[in-house]
Amino acid sequence: MERLRGVKAALGEIFSRSALRSPARLALGSFALVILLFAGLLSLPFATADGHRAPFIDALFTATSAVCVTGLTTVDTGTYWSGWGLAIIATGIKVGGLGIMTLASLIGLAVSRRLGLTQRLLAAGEARASGLGDLRSLLRTVLVVSFSVEIAIALILIPRFLTLDYGWGRSIGYSVFYGVSAFNNAGFSPDPVGLYPYSHDFWILVPLGLGVLVGALGYPVYLNLVRNWRRPRTWSLHTRLTLVMVGALMVISAVLLAIFEWSNPATLGAHSTADTIGNIFFQSINQRSGGFASFDIGDAREQTWLLEDVLMFIGGGSGSTAGGIRVTTVAVLLLAIMAEARGRRDMEAFGKRVGTEVLRGAVAVTMIGIAIIVVGTTVFMAQTDIPLDRSLYEVISAYATCGLTTGITSDLPDDAKITLIVMMYVGRVGSMTIAAALALNKQRRVIRYPSERPLIG
């Protein structure tokens, strides 16, 4: 017993020192280890439907996609993996959605009934808590909201799958899988060929769409709404910007998608008016991060691909299960443009002033994201003969952890799969690490150089 306590204390000391010296490195390493763990599990024979070992590159790709809540796959999820394989994927999605650092803090809280400063700092960075005092409430909100939404989706879907003669076991398993995949914005489907057969079935599409929408708002928004749901005037600026941007992007994407695809017989043109409108709004939710598709994206028009490139790059709310540079980042950039156009000194929204340090962070995150996508697309095109439009779409989908695809993923060579694995990994932990690095890298200087304004534009 004494030896076990000594080992535990030593591991705790190592963890604390690593966190204090380089929290970003610890986060990167934790995600990498979890991905390798799930890749190893998916490589076992019982994880596949035919009982043979999956090629490690496909197991690694699927594990990365699950833990990074992306949804891109090199094999058909519904036919290639066994029931155990689907359970492993769902668990990976749940772990990735909660966040490794948040999950570690939850375990620590359950065991010791208290959180150390290091754990609180790490979890606050992962979940985007507004302060250390909010962390305990935030973690409680994380658990309540995530499990409540996932269970609600499953309970709604079970009767529907029973009416489709799926049987009790398959109906419950698929419903739980869809609940986890929807809320965590993963886009994985246990059905062969995905959601295409359900493009007319709003009993399935509506709960999945709502689950994706709620999951993309972000845990800080949930906490703020739970505390002040009766007093909208007291909502934080972050909550208001997130809700406004999500709503605006949904409407804009729905209108543009209708313009681009309404007459396309390969996507929405063959549906009735009611089905077309329903599918448009379902896709308008999933285009930014959800990854579900009720029609074949490969048959969509190129202007739709360009629209979704932009939407995937924007992503969802900060501290959510979604990816991208986040809607509040774009909101800050728009506020800066508006302030400059009006000749105002400060960026203002909802009676609040946004500091210039926030703008610098938004510009840094955006430009770094663009640079990563440019480099990733260049490497991807060098590894394949795929044209720019499809290559860019696939790389952005991986980096933004969205999971939509034009149908090229399964035919990629191994080196191109590795490129997408790196993009998914960087997209999931990179933005978090970059944001943490920017926050921790603040320096106060006594001496400041004289200012001079260069010409812009």
From TrEMBL:
<feature type="transmembrane region" description="Helical">
    <location>
        <begin position="138"/>
        <end position="158"/>
    </location>
</feature>
<feature type="transmembrane region" description="Helical">
    <location>
        <begin position="418"/>
        <end position="440"/>
    </location>
</feature>
<keyword id="KW-0813">Transport</keyword>
<keyword id="KW-0406">Ion transport</keyword>
<feature type="transmembrane region" description="Helical">
    <location>
        <begin position="81"/>
        <end position="111"/>
    </location>
</feature>
<keyword id="KW-0812">Transmembrane</keyword>
<dbReference type="Pfam" id="PF02386">
    <property type="entry name" value="TrkH"/>
</dbReference>
<feature type="transmembrane region" description="Helical">
    <location>
        <begin position="26"/>
        <end position="44"/>
    </location>
</feature>
<keyword id="KW-0472">Membrane</keyword>
<protein>
    <submittedName>
        <fullName>Potassium transporter Trk</fullName>
    </submittedName>
</protein>
<feature type="transmembrane region" description="Helical">
    <location>
        <begin position="202"/>
        <end position="225"/>
    </location>
</feature>
<feature type="transmembrane region" description="Helical">
    <location>
        <begin position="237"/>
        <end position="260"/>
    </location>
</feature>
<keyword id="KW-1133">Transmembrane helix</keyword>
<keyword id="KW-1003">Cell membrane</keyword>
<feature type="transmembrane region" description="Helical">
    <location>
        <begin position="310"/>
        <end position="337"/>
    </location>
</feature>
<dbReference type="InterPro" id="IPR003445">
    <property type="entry name" value="Cat_transpt"/>
</dbReference>
<feature type="transmembrane region" description="Helical">
    <location>
        <begin position="358"/>
        <end position="382"/>
    </location>
</feature>
